[in-house]
From TrEMBL:
SUPFAM superfamilies assigned to the protein according to its UniProt record, in alphabetical order: Calcium ATPase, transduction domain A (SSF81653), Calcium ATPase, transmembrane domain M (SSF81665), HAD-like (SSF56784)
Protein name: Cd2+/Zn2+-exporting ATPase
Record's keyword annotation contains Nucleotide-binding: yes
Organism: Priestia endophytica DSM 13796
Keyword Transmembrane helix: yes
Family label: Belongs to the cation transport ATPase (P-type) (TC 3.A.3) family. Type IB subfamily.
Main localization (coarse): membrane
P-type ATPase A domain boundaries: 134-235
Membrane topology: Multi-pass membrane protein
């Protein structure tokens, strides 16, 4: 049966915020009432109360068939095309005309029941969206000149200051101006443990402020928050249809016309050609009208697609449309950005080496005291590492000079300290533990040196740590026969080290953004379907040129908007899960199509051979539709 898988928003809700009983269960209730009336009508007909029995059947027609008849008529007027609903309506009316009230009512009942199951599928998909929308408050407390004022979210602008108290949900994306707290970000990032936040930390709409009051400067209006992007992506996925679904809908229009033409011929040709009676001729025509309807075929894709999209949304995989979900099953090669995708994107201290007579704690204290005034990412990582190990308050340097491209020079306790890369120290750094520094370079680590008036004090090795799940995720993709490639702008040594650690099959180092596009295009020439995974602005061109673009949920807005699939929990293992989900969905769709076509052919042949009665035709045809829908619903649990 035809049902547009279009969900413009969450189910309509009354003022109390909960969907009404009729919205959620109206179709199923009507189908059940129709079934009860059929049983009553059958009993009355067998007790010689035929008038009352027919009356009960008529009520079953009206209650069970109203929604589908309304939908079919409205769609026919709108599209100027006959549809499956009209075929069923005509078949039910035809059955009543020749006195088969029970059969016609059964047709309406089972048709209504299958429609209710399809609506259930859509409602399940909508409830995923509704549950997301309920996480965001409708208003927030804004501070105006020190006074608190409750304001609805659409009226809050970028730069406004919000007061968020313990236990409240964060209403908008922003940066903490004062206070510190822990934020439960499970709804956005999937982190099980609340994350500590302090001045300067970012907070996201839909997360929960656990234990401290904070003031937050709004960085994005309601329509641009990460939370709203999640909702928009789910809506897009529900609104767009896969190629298979579009083909079936086009096929349906032609098929319905062909069925009506054949049924019209069936109403009189067998009488003259096969010597059937007029009653038998009309009866067989009505059975043909029922069994030849492509209800199960039309329902073969939509419930399965919606179920898979809903399952993905619940598990942090957002598909922007059924097209990308369907295409993912054919993935042959996948290219990964390195920084922020395979790795966490922030360098971490891995090794500390000092000269003799200098303790590690003393060395780190000196370096951090100077580096804390630098905005360089390496300097910030070193300071964070030191502060996690040393409780003593860092000292303020007497003088500080930034040397762009090399490092910093600071004066501490009247002694000049130079901190920076190897080239900043000429031959001295090359002579300090050369074998060890070479080993660090081979492992893809960046080395920072420090020097006082006696020479090199020590060196600190830092590395962009790979995501914990990256190696396993890549291994699963390799097992699935999908070629894995890493594209990075880093040096050859770093790229080699990371690729070995992640088990990536191949890597290409020194890639500029435009070169990533070139390599993606080259992969597309070798493979039918290629995906690109990235998180940054520089990845957006490659994401756009790949057959399937996959963005990390914490990526830039440009990456999120360009990608076809978003991993909201930044978990690379979800890629393999999405591939398996796509393969399973496509398998179920194929099962449904083969099964539905086989049933239609079997019923049509049985009807022409006069083996099939109308009740069995109704049960066989509509029963197959219900089975197809239930098969698609299996994807809700994958």
């Amino acid at each position: 049966m035809e049902r547009e898988a279009v969900v413009q928003s969450a189910p309509q809700q009354p003022m109390n915020g909960r969907p009404s009983f009729l919205v959620l269960h109206g179709e199923m209730t009507a189908a059940i009432v129709s079934g009860i009336l059929i049983v009553i009508g059958w009993v009355l007909m067998n007790q010689d109360y035929s008038e009352f029995g027919i009356g009960s059947f008529i009520l079953a027609y009206v209650i069970g068939g109203f929604a589908k008849a309304k939908e079919g008529i409205e769609e026919t007027i709108k599209e100027k095309e006959l549809n499956v609903e009209m075929l069923m309506l005509l078949a039910a009316i035809g059955s009543a005309i020749i006195g088969y009230w029970l059969e016609g009512a059964l047709l309406i009942f089972i048709f209504a029941l299958s429609g209710a199951l399809e609506t259930y599928t859509m409602n399940r998909s909508e409830r995923e969206l509704t549950s997301l929308m309920e996480l965001q408050p409708e208003e927030a407390t804004v501070l105006y000149e020190g006074k608190e004022k409750t304001v609805s979210l659409p009226n809050i602008k970028k730069g406004d200051i919000l007061l968020i108290k313990p236990g409240e949900r964060v209403p908008l994306d922003g940066t903490i101006l004062s206070g510190q707290t822990s934020i439960d970000q499970a709804a956005i990032t999937g982190e099980a443990v609340p994350v500590f936040k302090e001045i300067g930390s970012e907070v996201y709409a839909g997360t929960v402020n656990v234990n401290g009051a904070v003031t937050v400067e709004v960085t994005k209006p309601a329509k641009d928050t990460l939370f709203q992007k999640i909702i928009t992506l789910v809506q897009q996925a529900q609104n767009e249809k896969s190629p298979s679904q579009l083909f079936i809908e086009k096929f349906e229009s032609v098929y319905v016309k062909a069925v009506l033409i054949i049924v019209a011929l069936m109403m009189f040709l067998p009488h003259f050609l096969l010597d059937w009676s007029w009653t038998e001729t009309f009866y067989r025509a009505m059975i043909l009208l029922v069994v030849a309807s492509p209800c199960a075929l039309v329902a073969a894709i939509t419930p399965a697609s919606l179920s898979a999209i809903s399952y993905g949304a619940r598990h942090g995989i957002l598909f922007k449309s059924g097209l990308h979900l369907e295409r993912l099953a054919h993935l042959e090669a996948i290219a990964f950005d390195k920084t922020g995708t395979l790795t966490k994107g922030t360098p971490a201290v891995t090794d500390v080496v000092t000269r003799e007579a200098v303790s590690e704690e003393e060395f780190l204290y000196i370096v951090a005291s100077i580096e804390r005034y630098s905005h360089h990412p390496l300097a910030q990582s070193i300071v964070q590492h030191v502060q996690s190990k040393i409780t003593k308050e860092l000292k303020q340097p007497e003088q500080l000079e930034d040397v762009p491209g090399f490092g910093v020079i600071g004066t501490l306790n009247n002694q000049e300290i130079k901190i920076g890369k190897r080239e900043f120290f000429e031959k001295e750094a090359h002579a300090f533990r050369p074998n060890l520094s070479e080993s660090f370079a081979t492992e893809g680590k960046t080395v920072v040196y420090a020097k006082d008036d006696q020479g090199i004090i020590g060196m600190i090795a830092l590395k962009d740590i790979i995501r914990p799940e990256a190696k396993e995720a890549i291994s699963v993709l390799n097992e699935l026969g999908i070629k894995t490639v890493m594209l990075t702008g880093d040096s050859e040594k770093t790229a080699s080290a990371i690729s070995k650690e992640c088990s990536v099959e191949n890597y290409i180092a020194g890639c500029l953004p435009e070169e990533k596009v070139t390599h993606v295009k080259a992969l597309k020439q070798e493979h039918e379907t290629v995906a690109m995974v990235g998180d940054g602005i520089n990845d957006a061109p490659a994401l756009a040129h790949a057959n399937i673009g996959i963005a990390m949920g914490e990526g830039t807005d440009v990456a999120l908007e360009t990608a076809d699939i978003v991993l909201m929990k930044n978990n690379l293992s979800k890629i393999a899960q999405a591939v398996k989900l796509s393969k399973k969905m496509n398998a179920i769709v194929k099962q449904n199509i083969i099964f539905s076509i086989s049933i239609i052919v079997l019923l049509i042949c049985s009807n022409f051979l006069q083996f099939l009665d109308l009740p069995l035709g109704v049960i066989g045809h509509e029963g197959s539709t219900i089975l197809v829908i239930l098969n698609g619903l299996r994807l809700l649990k994958n």
